[in-house]
Amino acid sequence: MSFTTGHVGLNVSDLDRSVGFYRKIFGFDLAAESADEAHRYAFLTQDGTLVLTLWQQSEGTFAPGLPGLHHLSFQVPDIDAVRGAEAVVRETGATIHHGGIVPHREGGSSGGLFFEDPDGIRLEIYAPSGADDRPAPRSDVPTCGFF
Q1: Quick one: 19 and 52 in the same domain?
Q2: If 0-12 CB within 10 Å is exposed, 13-18 middle and 19+ buried, where does residue 66 land?
Q3: Which of 3, 69, 132, 141 is 20 to 30 A from 56 in CA distance terms?
Q4: How far is it, in rounded angstroms, from Cα 44 to Cα 23?
Q5: Are strands 8-12 and 49-56 parallel, antiparallel or unpaired?
Q6: Rounded distance, CA 93 to CA 99, Å?
Q7: What are the pLDDT digits (tens) for 91-101?
Q8: Boundaries of domain holding 51
Q9: Which CATH number characterizes residue 122's domain?
């Protein structure tokens, strides 16, 4: 038996804000959204495939110090796509870690942008190569592991 990752579901505190954020940065389509104010959710797709579900059932911000999701990562074809995404992320005013695009490790070519959504959920947009024009933030651990 083999498994592949299906969609990812995230708890959010403000569905409208989160839908706007994820659609702006990732270009997802809004496939479905609840009309029930007591049970708000949205399904976001890309090329007709469900990628992300958002569930408005949280308060406060994401607590990275507790067990659970570490970060959510999205791969793009090349570093130019990461740079394009970085410009959009900066427009949103999102928290960006490491000052911008960095490699996954010292001497590595893969890397990307590490940032947070409006609820503090840690995100990554990366490319398999082309991020080696800057040093890694730390030489002793993977960049995506500690931000």
Answers
A1: yes
A2: exposed
A3: 3
A4: 8
A5: parallel
A6: 13
A7: 999 999 999 99
A8: 8-56
A9: 3.10.180.10
